[in-house]
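Hi V.,

You were right to ask for the full record rather than a summary. Here it is.
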Amino acid sequence: MFSRDNFVCSKKSCKSDYNIALAGNPNVGKSTIFNALTGLKQHTGNWTGKTVECSSGKTKIKGKYFEITDLPGTYSMVSFSEEENVARNFLAENKIDCTVIVIDSNVIERNLSFALQVLSLQKNAILCLNLCDEAEKNGISIDTDELSLNLGIPVVCTCATKKRGLDELKNKIFEICIGNIKCFRVERNFENIDVLNINDYKAASHKFASLSKRICNQCVYKGSKEKLSKLDKILTSKSTGIPIMLLLFAILFWITAIGANYPSQWLSYLFEILKEQLTKLFDFLSITPFVTGILIDGVYTTLAWVVSVMLPPMAIFFPLFSLIEDSGYLPRIAFNLDKFFSKCGAHGKQSLTMAMGLGCNACGVTGCRIIESPQERKIAILTNNFMPCNGRFPTLIALIMMFFAGSSFGLISSIEVAGILLLIIVVCVLLTLVISKFLSRTFAKGEPSGFALELPPYRKPQIIKTLVRSFIDRTLFVLARAVAVAAPAGAIIWLTANIYIGDVSILQYCTEFLDPFGKFIGLDGVILMAFILGFPANETVIPIIIMSYMANGTLVDFSSYKELLELFSANGWTFVTAICMMIMCVLHYPCSTTCLTIKKETGSLKTTLLSMIIPTVIGIFLCMLVANTARIL
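Predicted structure:
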């Protein structure tokens, strides 16, 4: 049984005796093997491009220390995309004592072509046949001895998720590094091939594919996969693929809407009790009203709103979305949408980055690295903000509940919320396609690339592990970021609302200055000011609006949408205001974190500014169109 006794902390003081690289195609279980060997908790997902940077960890085997580097999943050694560039440079330029080439036993012929390319660069290697249990279920048997003779390296069968074969893998790594096992290059497999030369790549790829097929004919015996094919025929069908996708997201939004409401009310009630106790404590300590106002009415109440409104939907949405990721369904969505994106000069993989944007636009921008073409990657980055992130969902849900689904929450209203949210997502996708077409003809011209996205096998998600890791890695991470921004924002908002110049507060000066333009596009100065102050985090927009509407600039507890609706209605909100607010919520500049991520990913200030200008201009135009149409009618 694989033991955790060999795990070593990743302290810089631990000097490694040997360097190990993990290489392989996307979605072969490489990160799972990395986690098992090092004891780290790298998040894994059943879709292409999950890992786009190198991750390193240390382990100890028989008294020796090994540093293991998990390379990005890539299909070739030629640098077409960012992950291919990272993997190629690492293998070509670093001293590596042993390279573990991880392949999926279910699609060994396709993965073996990449393994042959790696072997042209690295002599000391091990072929790790992962997911061997799935291969057995699918009737695939592999002659590992014959495969080892053909490649000239050891071959190890593993099932990383069940910790099978990992002891043998570690022993082989150790034996190769100390020289007890000699790897040899089979010259007939690599003659006259330079995988680093892009000019020779086409000819080389054909030769590798031919060699891979020849070796597999000698070593691999395949059974039937009819059951899997039937499922893909349904989920990728022109007639059923997209309807199933829409139904799945509708159910996801419905569960999020109906499941998040009651925890939000409970948290709001709890925070209100704590606020009362804090107020009594401050009175007992004779804290000045000014400090009390900043800390309790400003910082605390803003934090309370952000946590009570954000935490429940994130705690539901992120884990459920992670289960969909791990099942292998997201690549099917990309496959279904590819024809639409290709017609718009974009790439089918953009649908994956859009899906990531539903959780966090910054993560979606980072995920655009899986798109090979620089022009198509730029289009995906510029349009990722058109998908509403988790920070905007609470605002959308609140607006839908107050103005469209009835403020009394129940089964019918939750279905209406889910339906309207799904409609918003569909509109966002259509708008993304239109803007992608525009960008492909203007700011991001270029020839469209081919779409080579592997459809991985369906897998049963590790439910408990996925839920726990999703809650920690995603929910708490995003919440912590929002809290870090909301705390100082709450203080600043309270100060601007309570520091007066004459008889008018600073906040009122700002909102009155913006009010004429705000009214012209169906909003008001308070809403525009909220979007400006909410640049660090979208989660703070509604709290800013509430604090601005209150006479003393204090966020009051609104435990129901009915009370919130009364406040907004008293300040001139109508259905038109709500519609325009929803438009601006979806279509305005990205948050500061996303903007910094875009600058980092592209290295271009121009691209970052475009990502801010394009959605904001479209949002203002649509709001103006809605507002003026309503005035005419």
